[in-house]
Amino acid sequence: MEPAFDSLLVRHLLALSARLGGQDSGLDNWLATSPVILDISDETTAHPVEVAFAQESGALRTICHRPYSRLRTVEEIMPVSRVRSIATGATARLAAHPEDWASHTLSGVRPSRLLGRRSEEDPVIYENRIAVAALDKMRAHLQQRLAKVSALRQMAADVHGLLMPSEHSTWRARRDLAGLLRNIENSSRRQSAAEARLEELGSALNAVEILLSSPLARTVGFRSEPPRELHPTNLFANDPDYRRIAAFWRVFTPVETPRTEAAEAAHHEEVGAAFARFTGLLLLLACTLLQATPESGQPAPGPGGVSRFQLRGESLVINWSTEGDFVVQWRDRQVLRVLPTLIDLCTAPDAATVTADVAALCRRQSNVGSVLVVYPGSQETRQSAANDVVRAAYRVGHGSDVAEPGADVAPLSPLDIFSVSRLARALNWATLGLDVRRYPPRAHVSADERSALSACGWIEPRTDGVAVVRAPRQNELDRLPNLLSQSRPRRARGKADTHHTRRLRHVVRTLEEAANATALLEVCPVCGKTDPSRPTTFEPRDEGLFTASCSSCRTRWELRRCPSCSHVFPLVTPDGTHATGAPEPDLDRRHAGSLLANPCWVQDRPGHAICPACSACSQGGRVLSCPRGCLARAQV
Q1: Are residues 306 and 431 in the same domain?
Q2: Could you tell me if residue 25 is inside a domain?
């Protein structure tokens, strides 16, 4: 289901899109734009409906407890002593029901019960139905307002929390995300305004709930919406309390121009373009979170445009297609496609529906590397959705790892400042994660060439060639031609010698490319220092694995093998501390997207991770009570 076109999320998307559309001077202005709109003054001021309720609550209270009613004639079987007026047809009924006879005399029947008539007050009149319907509409309005202002207060609190030390986020995440915001200094004042408005709305909702529990509301029980145009009645015209109720009802029913199908389609297209533009902004800001440097003098992004960055000394390109999706190129290779959609996947009834929707979206596009489906997801829908739906509607780092590739999924919202962290994490998987999973890079060489390279400490022999397990030093690279020349046949002459020389050049070039790929893994994924004196330690391990660390920011990154399914996956530990696992939105809040594989949730055994292929905790033994709700399938 798509978000409502009049929702707060859509309003912020359109406002942010209008702001970006007016910035056509260059890429730098886009990168200086905050991904959230923290101006919440419109939502923290009282709406006309709320002002009217505050003014007319006294009249509503009077009507709910002392309403006007009409007399209604009721026919029912009563004892003779209580009958004051005999109903029409009482004689005929008495003749047909001998059980109501007290005795039979010579003069006739003496009844014990008769069909009598009595009058009672009936409060279910048109004017009272309007009053109860107005209260019911007011309750719905206040509930929606509470949800909206709560989301804004949470956003303001998140922004304000970036200024303060917190156990919910690391200092690096606070620093990186705070650098993307331009209105953070007013977050405390706006948070206070939102909290004050929430308190007023909560008090009004309590008053409405009390009135809806009154005898009149319980008797009327009217919840369908009466017509917009009130019928002129004597009570609405002459009674002061009911006249105020009529004025209050008219506040709920302003004159609206019905929207045509063409206008609906145009608005849908406008919202889709706004969400695509918002996705493009977050994608560019995610590049800056990963320490990517934009090339100078680039034009403003737009459909059909290209944005170029340098990440860890290599080329990173963002292509914005005319269809509205984005293709990420890393080192001249297409590694990720980002597909925006307006369907809120958290509103799906079950996880299977989410999977089917994502598969249908992916079939419409040609797969290029990994695929990330993004959608406008609100906090309210995530909180109300089932756990399996939320897990299916937000997963990053899984689609490109498993044997049967699928698509990653992530919610984005201008009301959630951590949306940029999700795209940063997806980019991290598409760049660093892709390079790590291809470690060690290999080169196909002959047996003689493999024998000649056995003296190189940065090369290990393989059955089909050699593997570059660490980045060589410059003097080790300079020795390559001399070492490979030892594999030259002794009697090679003419064309054979020329062919062998060309072959050696190809091998040297292949080994240098593999060495550059390995050297890229030695660059810290967090601080991104690419100078020759970078303070990193890289250690190859058995079975094609490695571990590395940065002494500057204390980040550790490595390649691990799952003991359950033997799948290899990358892992990043920022700041040198083993993170405790949590739902993925919480991990984005804590680490600003610098993680790769999710850390294990077991707190007393840190340093383990969850395999993205089989979802097993990589513990050394079985965990009987995992907070994540699973069993570690590692072999004991």
Answers
A1: yes
A2: no
Helix axes 261-289, 8-21, angle to 10 degrees: 70
- Kindly state the tokens that stand for 350: 């079950």
Q: Does the predicted model carry a pTM greater than 0.85?
A: no
Q: Residues 339, 342, 346, 349: is their CA dihedral positive or negative? A: negative
Q: For residues 609 and 563, is the Cβ–Cβ distance under 8 A?
A: no
pLDDT digits (tens, 9 = 90+) for 366-404: 656 689 999 998 877 887 888 888 888 988 886 554 434
Contact status, residue 562 vs residue 431, Cβ threshold 8 Å = no
Domain range spanning residue 604?
527-636
The proportion of the chain whose per-residue pLDDT surpasses 70, expressed as a percent, equals 86
Total domain count for the chain?
A: 5
pLDDT value, residue 287: 92
Q: Answer with the one of 409, 437, 465 that is the final residue of a domain.
A: 437
- Does 478 map to a domain? yes
Average pLDDT, the chain: 83
Question: What are 622's two structure tokens?
Answer: 């079985």
361 shares its domain with 301: yes
Same structural domain, 246 and 293: no
Residue 360's contacts (CB-CB under 8 Å, 6 or more residues apart) are none
310 lies in some domain: yes
Query: 167 φ, ψ to 5°?
Result: -75, -10
Q: How many CA atoms lie within 13 A of 434 on its CB side?
A: 18
**Residue 133 to residue 127: CA distance in whole angstroms:** 10
- Specify whether 209 is located in the same domain as 303: no
pLDDT digits (tens, 9 = 90+) for 575-630: 767 677 787 878 888 888 888 888 887 766 667 888 888 877 766 555 566 666 66
